[in-house]
Design a protein that fits this description.
Blueprint (H helix, E strand, L loop, with lengths): L10 H10 L6 H11 L4 E4 L6 H15 L9 E6 L3 H14 L7 E4 L6 H7 L3 E6 L1 H9 L10 E4 L2 H6 L3 H9 L6 E6 L4 H10 L4 E4 L10 E7 L5 H11 L5 E4 L3 H13 L5 E3 L5 H13 L4 E4 L1 H4 L9 E4 L6 H8 L9 E7 L1 H15 L5 E3 L25 H12 L2 H26 L3 H25 L3
Parallel strand pairs: 1-6, 1-7, 2-4, 2-5, 3-4, 5-6, 8-13, 8-14, 9-11, 9-12, 10-11, 12-13
Amino acid sequence: MTSFQDFGLADAITRALREEGYQTPTPIQAQTIPFALEGRDVIGIAQTGTGKTAAFALPILHRLLERRTKVPSKTCRVVVLSPTRELSGQILDSFNAYGRHIGVTSALAIGGVPMGRQVRALMGGVEILVATPGRLIDLVQSNALKLGQVEFLVLDEADRMLDMGFINDIRKIVAKLPAKRQTLFFSATMPKDIAELASQMLQDPARVAVTPVSSTAERITQRIIQVDHAAKATHLAELLKQEPIERALVFTRTKHGADKVVKGLAKAGIASNAIHGNKSQNHRERVLAAFRSGEIRTLIATDIAARGIDVDGISHVVNFDLPNVPETYVHRIGRTARAGAEGTAISLIAGAEEMGYLRNIERLIRIALPREDRRTAREPGHREPSHRDTVATPHHRPHAARGNESVQASKGPRRRRRSGANNNAQQINRQEPRRASHGGGKSEGIQGVAVLHRESRPNNHRNRRQQPR
């Protein structure tokens, strides 16, 4: 399809699309809309920013218009589930924009705000309800919503909903829906548990997939900067001052980490704000509005909160903490270089653990990313992270790494291993408090060996002294 006119959508919908400036459908739209118009279930594999919302909203609006009926009280015809409040709000805005000439009735049901207004909005019934799973369950349990009239179910960002622990809520919701319905299921990735959920919910689905998760936009310049743990905040502040930034989106792994970064940047004279699950809905909306308008140029976010960020003009994405899931890296940097623009993705890497994450990312995207080393002088006994520090198996290590190990092995493997173990034990003993705060990984195993080795000598010595002469 080269034009939205080719789909045969209702004139009221195509007129709204022209007013929105839509001309050529994206690949996910071109593949999904024909199947959805036929009434078929669809599994769509597509990343954020590929046009998924229009791919399911347009055919649903068309089919609603084909058969307009009075919606009973406390019911809806369409349920759209999404993982975050921000994404839910944006989906509802899209439905209202595309259906502006139809007079569609809609409501939003999300957590973080009082439920009273949402209950009142459902009293007369609505055609379209966009909700987060937890709040939808609350409305059903309080008898403010009945799901027996639902004709269309959409799951958007299904993989993220499972990551957030919504799987049981989704199963409860699906159990209350009519068996005869159309289900449109979208996910950026399709791991085994997502595939199993889809197989239980969909009937003979059409499968569409665009923009493989292993690909990264060609217009994104990707950089890796190796730093010391303690110096991450300093390097981030320097980057934000030196780079030609229009808007910067900085990712942290935790909510506490996001707030800590904001405080650190404030000390460096850089204004920023954070959004994450602990922030109120009003706060998140204010911060996003300021980020879109350019009032705030730097936004700090966790992955979950960022799923609802659809902002053009993000010139830089910075990974303050590298994600431990390679696909998440691709989703993060996809926030820049949109609409034909160019973008920059910078990752600050500290320690062997994040180096392991980096190698898994490079294996996924099949690109060796350029590195810049800004670490200070090495400590005595310092050992550069090797491929043994990654979670990969030996069969997945790059050939160059296996070749280097062969050369080292030829110099005397037994001697090298004893030396490495001693160095590791000494280094970890020095860094034990910091290692313990991070936890996990192979360092715990090495640390355990070091502790046992350290404790064994005093015990043996004590035993020798206590033996009878």
